[in-house]
Known about the structure:
Blueprint: E1 4-7, E2 14-17, E3 26-28, E4 35-41, E5 44-48
Amino acid sequence: MTNQTAECVECGSSLEIPEDVERGEIIDCSTCGAELEVVEEDPVDIEEAPELEEDWGE
């Protein structure tokens, strides 16, 4: 089994994605430190992870 690869949406570097990756998983780019979210598993598609927002007690 081989890892998949994806391109960092921030810096364009190649990322190795584990084969058992799941939608919603957060991956850190080792080059620029960006937090990326897996939005599709097969083929792997990643986007910039959304910033955490406070819920203001709701």
